[in-house]
UniProtKB/TrEMBL annotation, chain A:
<dbReference type="InterPro" id="IPR050107">
    <property type="entry name" value="ABC_carbohydrate_import_ATPase"/>
</dbReference>
<protein>
    <submittedName>
        <fullName>ABC transporter</fullName>
    </submittedName>
</protein>
<dbReference type="InterPro" id="IPR003593">
    <property type="entry name" value="AAA+_ATPase"/>
</dbReference>
<dbReference type="InterPro" id="IPR003439">
    <property type="entry name" value="ABC_transporter-like_ATP-bd"/>
</dbReference>
<feature type="domain" description="ABC transporter">
    <location>
        <begin position="24"/>
        <end position="258"/>
    </location>
</feature>
<dbReference type="InterPro" id="IPR027417">
    <property type="entry name" value="P-loop_NTPase"/>
</dbReference>
<dbReference type="GO" id="GO:0005524">
    <property type="term" value="F:ATP binding"/>
</dbReference>
TrEMBL record, chain B:
<dbReference type="GO" id="GO:0005886">
    <property type="term" value="C:plasma membrane"/>
</dbReference>
<feature type="domain" description="ABC transporter substrate-binding protein PnrA-like">
    <location>
        <begin position="45"/>
        <end position="284"/>
    </location>
</feature>
<keyword id="KW-0732">Signal</keyword>
<dbReference type="InterPro" id="IPR052910">
    <property type="entry name" value="ABC-Purine-Binding"/>
</dbReference>
<protein>
    <submittedName>
        <fullName>BMP family ABC transporter substrate-binding protein</fullName>
    </submittedName>
</protein>
<dbReference type="Pfam" id="PF02608">
    <property type="entry name" value="Bmp"/>
</dbReference>
<dbReference type="InterPro" id="IPR003760">
    <property type="entry name" value="PnrA-like"/>
</dbReference>
UniProtKB/TrEMBL annotation, chain C:
<keyword id="KW-0812">Transmembrane</keyword>
<keyword id="KW-1133">Transmembrane helix</keyword>
<feature type="transmembrane region" description="Helical">
    <location>
        <begin position="232"/>
        <end position="255"/>
    </location>
</feature>
<keyword id="KW-1003">Cell membrane</keyword>
<feature type="transmembrane region" description="Helical">
    <location>
        <begin position="275"/>
        <end position="303"/>
    </location>
</feature>
<dbReference type="Pfam" id="PF02653">
    <property type="entry name" value="BPD_transp_2"/>
</dbReference>
<protein>
    <submittedName>
        <fullName>ABC transporter permease</fullName>
    </submittedName>
</protein>
Length: 527, 366, 347
């Protein structure tokens, strides 16, 4: 492939001095894992002074490609060219030395060290004799140089996700990175933090740096990036100037067909009038550390309705989900399941009553990652025929059940006995969702179900929630995406600092009002 | 003594009465014939409880084996040292048989572990030191160390000014009872007021504990130390504190030349040569054998500071015992004052081998 | 490209077997070279070892005798590891089981047909009792079972020493270091091999089938793999932790019963012979599969028996220990290397 062909649809930036090579050129990169093509024949250029998005479905090979670029994996074919010269990265430190730095989705910081200590960890320029004052001063200098605000003396474990990410970025930049790679950097950030991150990235770009950003969020890509490359099934589908493409085109390229997310999901039937399956009365709950996370929450779910829960992350959503599913007993107040007061936290009772739960952290909560897909698939129904009974359990039946579940949601299983951690996050989510919908005859609590899903999977997930609603299930949807909440909800509840600010009918809710409630203003103020 | 393990592993595992020997020996009736075997075809296997370099018990046996090999240069031998007192002992003895040994000699008491193997290998001759059972192909042997101890006791009473003897013991087992009792009996033959205090240190080899025990005994007024230890710990104490000491197993005079009196020394050479010779000729018989004074066990040459008159007196007693006289005759009372051996009864070696009560005048063995 | 290897998350059994085979060969080569350097003939020694282990009826009997307790202690540790619980106290539970079985065998006067089942029940119950406190502490208080079970080993060992040399010491025959010979013993079936061997094989097979086919097996697997997910699914974790640890203790207790009633016939100090600790090695060798405990115990028995054989060739006990350690290390390295696969280059 010559340069012209490769740059089709995305020519060299005009402001680049003639003869300046791209920071990074990938030429025909291939990477295979046993039985899997991760990347094949991927070629792209990353130019200085540009933010380059890498877009693709779950499992399209984005992370693998970046691991090749940063020396974590060796490519099985193709060439990596940095500043016009072919290179081989035997290990990540070789890539760092070449000016390529990556910020991973899961931060690689030592949580008990201070910010300054983390910045100086494993760094050739760290002075031999360490003094806390000196490295903190160093850290402050770095912070000013790159325009990333940090508190050098703070212990990393006490920082918010956004602050930790800044430390991680600063750490990479301080090693002289000219190409910064970020893997889904906004997934863990609050909207304000996203804004701050974008400012910092633009500043880095304007200084001549290059950025590769992996993301699912099309609006962010459109707002931030200069060009965008789309991967599908491990191959490069195309590279475009962001300004000359549209989200719809990108989605079509990414999925292979056009997909749009509906802005509403009209119900197919009338809302049945039945007693509320689950009622919270003045519920106060503490987290495991004993801190009050929910205060005086009164909430009545309605069958055949989706209740959207809006709120900035960390305002009591996990505890609300846990109280609703029997994982946590309220400190005060009462929970009534089908009209019967529940005394103790017993998830088994809730599950038997038809309460399904898609928790926020699937791998930690809803799955046993080291066990097989089959064993995970039957987590809710293992004690029922034909899989099991009072004493028995049949792994053969469990395998069949898992296959059934996978077929239903369109997940291709290499084998039902493989550990479930081998599936992509999106596929895990689909299986969990289907598993929970199967038992959720009364209530389904879904916390951030679109997290980590690509747009095609999100569309499918929303359809499933709407179908459950139509079947008469009371659905609770927690999401950080207001569009999602507006598209699906019949009512919107707003959480702020553990208090339920309001429960508003969809027709009365608008973005400004919900935003005001989320920031803690009372309903009277917001209205 | 050479045992570096607690006594439950030990060869001195012999509390029981003499009856068992007679009982079990009667059960096995038909004694198999052990056909003659040429010297170069004979493989003799030895099982030891501690390393041959232990400087004590196993070393004494190894000296006997060296002498055996000098006598029968074409004889094949093999040994395993540090055999635990567990089912692994059975495995090792079985392995001896599997490797073709026609004679297996255990230099310590492995009880059932050797008995089980012997029962399944009737064509192999087994000997167990400190054993208690005789069967169609299993015999045992032990040393009558109490006579040597008695002779040393005579010297002890002459050398001690206070009449208080100290004994550094391992565990309250028959060998220790017999050793302490015999020494005091010898001492009382010249000084009826003599007493003996015993301290058990729960080990056959623990130089630090032996040293502490020796010091404590001297502090309590003892001016003659004896005992049953593998190391010269209390001999050094005696040297430093200016008192006397008698030892066990080997000549240890170099560690306390001024304090050294004598030692109960062991010599298995003659016995091993005789047993292997019998096996070669084809007239080996399983039996219980005591190695007697002067023929396997004796007192060591007297120490440099032991006066001539004491040597002569003790050696005269030794000569009487060699002549067949036994000092172990009634009436003998235990430490509670109870008559244990009636007037006129002479304790035979089997009774002495199983001695498990302390003589009047002995304290500390319980 | 400098390298094209990848680490497999799931390693096929075949790769493991090949890896272990190669590792054992490498270890044996090291041993052979060392022996040759010491002036011994590796070939002669190898022949002797083979003859005394797999090459003769006598050797096979000894292997079976070694395997019997190892299969059971291996199973005891394995059921724990399967759910992320580490019972380091199989040694102590082994002693407890042996002690209880001895008590039944010496003091009840039951006829053999009743005494042997009673000894099995008593042995298992004692093993369970010995792990009960650590199990409860682990299940409800989160106290690490590794430390508590380990410490109880020393208590059990000393208790047996006390009984065997004190109140239960034999006064009938000459052996002071142990109790009287049990009045009821497991009958021999093949040379020195007794009924404990088929009992152990049977136990392992039944255990494997039951855990794979039972609701209990499934629930404990979930609880072990991810306690949070178990709670989410309404499975109470603590009672299952207790149940698994009790099962583990019961199996180790059974091992103690079988050893005392089948092999040693008297209770004595040191009767556990490290079988409890070796059970950890056996369980790790068996990896995820219960039935693999049988070949794993065979391999361990072979290594131990090799140790015995080498000692009779005047190779010192410490050298034998070093060789044993080398073999186990080689297997661990082999397992690790088996996880690395070469990736085919296509371009």
């Amino acid at each position: 492939m010559d340069e012209h062909e490769r740059s089709e649809g995305a020519p060299r930036p005009l402001n680049l001095a003639p003869g300046t090579p791209p920071v990074l050129t990938l030429s025909g990169i291939c990477k295979y894992f046993p039985g899997v093509i991760a990347n094949e024949d991927v070629s792209l250029d990353v130019f200085p002074g540009q933010i380059h998005a890498l877009l693709g479905e779950n499992g399209a090979g984005k992370s693998t490609l970046m691991n090749v670029v940063t020396g974590l994996y060796q490519p099985d074919g193709g060439e990596i060219i940095v500043d016009g010269y072919g290179v081989t990265f035997a290990a990540p430190d070789a890539a760092i030395a070449a000016g390529i730095g990556m910020v991973h989705q899961h931060f690689k910081l030592v949580s008990r060290f201070t910010v300054a200590e983390n910045l100086h960890l494993g760094w050739s320029e760290t002075p031999r004799r360490l003094s806390a004052r000196q490295i903190e001063a160093n850290a402050r200098t770095l912070s000013e140089k790159f325009g990333l605000a940090i508190r050098p003396e703070a212990v990393v474990g006490t920082l918010s996700a956004g602050e930790q990410q800044r430390v991680e970025i600063l750490r990479v930049l301080s090693r002289g990175a000219r190409l910064l790679i970020l893997d889904e950097p906004t997934a863990v950030l609050s909207p304000v933090e996203v804004g701050e991150l974008f400012i910092a990235l633009r500043r880095f770009r304007d200084g001549g740096g290059a950025v590769i950003i992996i993301s699912h969020k099309l609006d962010e890509i459109m707002a931030l990036t200069d060009r965008v490359s789309v991967l599908r099934h491990g191959r490069l589908v195309g590279t475009h100037l962001t300004a000359s493409t549209t989200p719809a085109l990108l989605v079509a390229e990414m999925i292979g067909r056009p997909v749009t997310l509906a802005t509403s999901y009209p119900r197919g039937n009338e809302v049945p009038v039945t007693p509320s399956p689950l009622v919270l009365e003045e519920v106060t709950a503490r987290d495991d550390g004993g801190i009050i996370r929910l205060e005086g929450v009164t909430l009545s779910l309605r069958a055949g309705e989706i209740l959207g829960v809006a709120g900035v992350t960390g305002n009591g959503q996990p505890e609300l989900a846990e109280v609703l599913t029997g994982l946590r007993a309220p400190d005060q107040g009462s929970v009534a399941l089908d009209g019967v007061a529940v005394k103790q936290a017993d998830p088994a009772v809730f599950a038997r009553a038809g309460v399904g739960h898609v928790p926020e952290d699937r791998l930690r909560r809803a799955l046993a990652p080291s066990l097989s897909v089959a064993e995970n698939a039957v987590l809710r129904e293992y004690a029922q025929a034909p899989i099991g009974g009072r004493f028995g359990f049949s792994i053969v039946r469990a395998r069949e059940f898992a296959q059934l579940l996978a077929d239903k949601v369109g997940v291709k299983l290499p084998g039902a006995m493989m550990p479930i951690r081998g599936l992509s996050g999106g596929n895990q989510q689909r299986l969990v969702l289907e598993r929970e919908i199967r038992i959720a005859s009364r209530v389904l609590v879904a916390s951030y179900p679109s997290r980590g899903l690509d747009i095609g999977a999100i569309a499918a997930m929303r359809e499933m929630l709407a179908k459950a609603r139509d079947a008469g299930v009371a659905v609770v949807l927690m999401s950080e995406d207001l569009d999602e909440i507006f598209a699906l909800s019949d009512r919107v509840a707003v959480l702020c600092a553990g208090r339920l600010m309001a429960v508003i009918d969809r027709c009365d809710a608008d973005r400004d009002r919900i935003g005001a409630l989320m920031s803690g203003r009372t309903q009277a103020e917001a209205a | 003594m050479s045992l570096k393990k607690p006594f439950f592993f030990g060869r001195r595992a012999a509390l029981s009465g003499a009856g068992s020997f007679l009982l079990t020996s009667g059960v096995r009736a038909a004694t198999p014939r052990f056909a003659p075997v040429r010297e170069e075809d004979l493989l003799v296997a030895f099982g030891h409880t501690s390393p041959v370099t232990d400087g004590g018990w196993t070393h004494a046996h190894d000296m006997g084996i060296q002498a055996l090999k000098r006598t029968y240069p074409k004889l094949k031998t093999l040994y395993v040292e540090s055999i635990p007192y567990s089912a692994d002992a059975t495995r090792i003895f079985r392995q001896f048989v599997a490797e073709g040994a026609q004679m297996v000699i255990s230099t310590s008491n492995y009880g059932d572990f050797i008995r089980d193997v012997a029962d399944r290998a009737p064509a192999v001759a087994f000997m167990e030191c400190d054993g208690h059972a005789v069967s169609g192909n299993l015999g045992w042997y032990y040393i009558t160390h109490w006579y040597a101890s008695y002779a040393i006791g005579v010297a002890a009473a002459r050398l001690s000014k206070t009449g208080r003897l100290g004994y550094v013991a391992s565990f309250p087992v028959p060998s220790v009872y017999a050793g302490a009792n015999a020494t005091l009996l010898g001492a009382r033959s010249v000084n009826p007021e003599a007493t003996m205090r015993v301290i058990s240190i729960n080990s056959w080899f623990d130089p630090q504990a032996a040293t502490e025990a020796g010091s404590a005994l001297v502090d309590s007024g003892c001016d003659f130390l004896c005992g049953i230890m593998d190391d010269p710990g209390y001999l050094r104490v005696a040297q430093d504190r200016g008192v006397w000491a008698a030892m066990w197993n080997t000549d240890m005079r170099q560690f306390g030349p001024d304090a050294y009196v004598s030692s109960v020394t062991l010599d298995f050479a003659k016995f091993y040569i005789e047993q292997v010779g019998a096996r070669i000729r084809g007239d080996w018989k399983p039996e219980a054998r005591f190695l007697t004074l002067g023929a396997g066990v004796d007192r060591d040459a007297w120490g440099q500071r032991v006066p001539e008159v004491v040597r002569v007196e003790a050696d005269a007693v030794r000569a009487r015992m060699l002549g067949g006289w036994s000092p172990f005759q009634g009436p003998l009372y235990d430490s509670e004052g109870k008559l244990r051996v009636a007037e006129g009864h002479v304790m035979n070696d089997m009774e002495l081998y199983n001695w498990n009560w302390q003589l009047q005048g002995v304290s500390g063995l319980g | 490209m400098s390298s094209s290897r990848t680490r497999l998350t799931v390693v096929p059994t075949q790769r493991i077997l090949v890896g272990r085979g190669l590792a054992l060969l490498a270890a044996l080569l090291i041993v052979a070279v060392t022996l040759a350097a010491m002036g011994r003939s590796p070939i002669t020694l190898f022949g002797l070892v083979m003859h005394s282990t797999v090459g003769s009826r006598f050797g096979l009997e000894d292997l079976a005798l070694f395997m019997t307790p190892l299969m059971l202690t291996g199973a005891a540790v394995w059921v724990g590891i399967r759910v992320n619980l580490w019972n380091i106290g199989a040694e102590g539970q082994f002693y407890a089981g042996a002690t209880a079985a001895t008590a039944v065998g010496l003091f009840t006067g039951l006829p053999p047909a009743l005494a042997i089942p009673a000894m099995i029940v008593a042995g298992m119950a004692a093993g369970m009792a010995w792990i009960f406190v650590p199990a409860v502490a682990r299940a409800w208080l989160g106290v690490s079972e590794i430390v508590t079970t380990l410490l109880l080993n020393f208590v059990a060992s000393l208790l047996v020493y006390y009984l065997a040399t004190g109140p239960w010491a034999d006064r009938v025959t000459g052996a002071l270091a142990s109790t009287e010979r049990l009045h009821v013993i497991l009958p021999d079936i093949w040379g020195v091999v007794h009924w404990g061997f088929p009992l152990a094989v049977f136990t392992v097979v039944v255990l494997g089938v039951l855990l794979a086919r039972s609701r209990f097996g499934y629930e404990t697997a979930i609880a072990g793999a991810n306690p949070e997910a178990a709670r989410y699914a309404g499975i109470s974790v603590a009672p299952r932790v207790l149940a698994v640890l009790l099962l583990s203790g019961g199996l180790a207790g059974l091992a103690g019963m079988v050893e005392v009633a089948g092999t040693v016939h008297r209770l004595q100090g040191g009767i556990a012979n490290n079988y409890g600790y070796l059970g950890i090695v056996v369980a790790l060798l068996a990896r995820g599969s219960c039935l693999s405990l049988i070949p794993a115990a065979l391999l361990m028995a072979f290594i131990l028996d090799t140790g015995i054989v080498l000692q009779t060739t005047q190779i010192s006990a410490s050298a034998v220990l070093a060789i044993t350690g080398l073999l186990v290390l080689a297997i661990a390295v082999g397992d690790e290397l088996a996880a690395y696969a070469r990736v085919k280059k296509t371009s």
